[in-house]
Amino acid sequence: MRFGLIVCWLAWAAPQPDNFWHVLAQVGFEKKKSANGWAVDVPVFSTHVKSWNGQRITLKGYILPAGEVGSTRYMFSSQPFNLCYFCGAAGPETVVELDTREKILFSSKPMTIAGTLVLNATDEDRHMYILTDVKIVSR
User: CATH top-level class for 16-138?
Assistant: First the structure.
């Protein structure tokens, strides 16, 4: 029992890696049928990624608007706009969905944000990585 508590404490107390995108890359995918019968890729998160679910993390990257002008729907990418996942230049593990009430101005310059990581393997209308309670750390 003590060993389990020590391992749990060490996992909780471990500092965030400098480049958290490397952690988010530790995901695989399996084909499943959705409720409407479509074949979809469902994320299979590594144990390491799962240990960060619900934890506050910091990411450096690029803001991507994901809604209409004036919307507060955003994606955040490890790559600049012209090299991002949506342009076919990277995989889905290189972007996170941002859940924020704040408006974030688009910029082509990198910024650092912080938020609580939520893993999503069930809602196919949302991204597999979601950051809630997002705050801009630096521009």
Answer: mainly beta
